[in-house]
Amino acid sequence: MNEDQARELVLEALRDVAPEIDSATIDPDVPFQEQLDLDSMDFLNYVSGVEEAAGIRIPEPDYPKVSSLAGCVAFVLAVVAARPERAR
Amino acid sequence: MEAGTLVEWLVKPGDRVKRGDVVAVVDTEKAAIEVEVFTDGVVEELLVPAGQRVPVGTVLALVGDGGAPTTHEARVSPVIRRLAEQLGVDLTTVTGTGPDGVISRADVERASSTTVGERARLRVSPLAAAEAQRLKVELATLTGSGPGGAITQSDVQRAAAAQGTPEAGAAAPTNVPSVPEVAPEVPQPTTPGTGRETSREQQLAMRRAIAQLMARSKREIPHYYLGTRIELSRSLAWLEAENRNRKAGERVLPAALLIKAVALAVHETPSMNGFWIDGEFRPGAGVHVGVAISLREGGLIAPCIHDVDGRSLDDLMIALHDLVQRARAGRLRSSEMSDPTITVSNMGDQGVETLFGVIYAPQVSLVGFGKILERPWAEGGLLGVRPTVHATLSADHRASDGHQGGLFLATIDRLLQRPEAL
Fold first, then answer.
1. Is position B276 within any domain?
2. For B35-54, how does the pLDDT look when each residue is reduced to its tens digit (9 = 90+)?
3. Which pLDDT belongs to residue B204?
């Protein structure tokens, strides 16, 4: 998985919970909760969407890492890269 | 809400229906509401065609037992008859769910809470209903002169003569009892719903509906407010351990713990759960917790999850996921809008520390939770930093006093210290 694929995957999960967002206006370094109208249920659904699409697990203590676009892309890439080759 | 448009029928005459089946979709200010039938039977006639806008309380369809007209009086025991008298329930409006259609205690209690839910119902003969449709008279605007306030054919004809041309504005619904054959009814949600469209007109309609509801609450209900800070380290540590090996989609949110604690606390302080109607408190039949959900396009809706006290946390989370999703998609069910017995509002996600809620009339209480915050916390002579939440209670002073309200909040606190029992 490359960075563009990871970014698209994260944005897709985000669009599923907040269809009205314009991905071009998202500041990649600011937590979603501060720039989008997401409640805890939305955030949970977003995390779940990323988990499903990337085939990874995001434990609760890692929530702060995946709460911005840049942070989540980096997290997904790091987890996928750490897996054994055949599982990628 | 005063009127709704019948969008779609999901049944046709001759179809057999069970209590709780979704039979029609009605569009209200902004939400599409799935109308559930409240009795078992056979659809005899659809009285309102798709596309027609009708006032709240309008009879939508006739549901019979598929055979001869029922004689309800014969299927009631003397004990139940006395209970019905005490609760002010007209037994001819109750459909029995017991063996052979016998009316049980639960049926009467449910009917009592339905009255309490202020769902306007009409007592009207099929003949009068047909006449009303022909003459374009809105049945919900009529007062019946027949037995038990039933609307007769001549009432309809008089109204038609009086109105000359059909009135455009829908009048306030009249509260007249119905016969069981006149199911289902147009629901009366406690708030308007979400939008599948976001036109300015619909935004305005929702704002007006919220304005009406809140103004009524502040006009009629003498609110009192209590608050307490609850320490959550046990709850959150337990939750974290529970969630550790779960996929995100199966994790339990703190909100579910809070809602469950409120539902269980009601058992110890029943005066928080129910309605203030006609100068007296009427306890809710079951603990149906309304959950305030903010909508993406703006606005607010508070549909309920039924029987929260009997659900596991996992079950509650599934119900919460489902409810939020359907609230935002604009597909709520009529019972979810008409049945809440108490409401929980959780503003923590917006970063608010404390909220002082406005009660959804005719309910008598609302529990508010703010953001979960780390705070200095003294316990056993030691000072530490703990996660805490500010819990508030807005309650109707006609139905309860501050003493009971205080006990209620204390019970919620106590329950949250033993999360494994929730």
1. yes
2. 888 788 888 888 888 888 88
3. 84
* CATH code: domain of residue B98: 2.40.50.100
- The DSSP-derived string for A8-61 is HHHHHHHHHH-TT--GGG--TTS-HHHHS---HHHHHHHHHHHHHHHT----GG
Chain A residue with Cα closest to B249: A48
Whether B187 is in a domain gets the answer no
B87 or B316: whose pLDDT is higher?
B316
From the list B247, B294, B297, the residue facing A48 with the nearest CB is: B247
The one-letter code for the residue type at B29 is: E
Which pTM value belongs to this model? 0.68
On the CB side of B308, CA atoms within 13 Å amount to 35
pLDDT tens digits along B113-156: 544 333 334 566 556 666 676 677 777 667 666 655 667 667 77
Contact B296 A51 (CB under 8 A): no
Examine the domain organization and report whether B173 and B230 are in the same domain.
Answer: no
Q: Which residue has the higher pLDDT, B12 or B405?
A: B405
User: How far apart are the C-alpha atoms of B91 and B111, rounded to whole Å?
Assistant: 9
The per-residue b/e assignment along B85-95, b for 16 or more CB within 10 angstroms, e otherwise, is eeeebbbbbbb
For domain A3-87, give the CATH superfamily.
ACP-like (1.10.1200.10)
Domain boundary pick from B164, B182, B200? B182
**CATH assignment of the domain containing B293:** 3.30.559.10
**Worst-scoring range by mean pLDDT, A13-22, B232-241, B335-344, B378-387?**
A13-22
Q: What is the pLDDT of residues B296-314, one digit of tens each?
A: 777 889 999 999 999 999 9
Residue B347 domain-assigned? Answer: yes
Decide if pLDDT at B170 tops 60: no
Best of B296, B305, B355 to substitute, by most chain A Cβ atoms within 10 angstroms, is B296
Q: Residue B20's domain spans which residues?
A: 3-182
Tell me, yes or no, whether B156 lies in a domain.
yes
With an 8 Å Cβ cutoff, the interface of chain B facing chain A consists of 240, 243-244, 247-249, 251, 253-255, 294, 296-297, 320-321, 324, 348-350
Say how many domains are in chain B.
2
Shared domain for B177 and B274, answered yes or no, is no
The verdict on B239 and B102 lying in the same domain is no
Contact at CB, B349 and A18, closer than 8 angstroms? no
User: Is B261 in the same domain as B382?
Assistant: yes
Compute CA distances B77 → B65, B87, B102, B353, whole Å: 21, 15, 9, 53
DSSP-derived 3-state class of residue B214:
helix
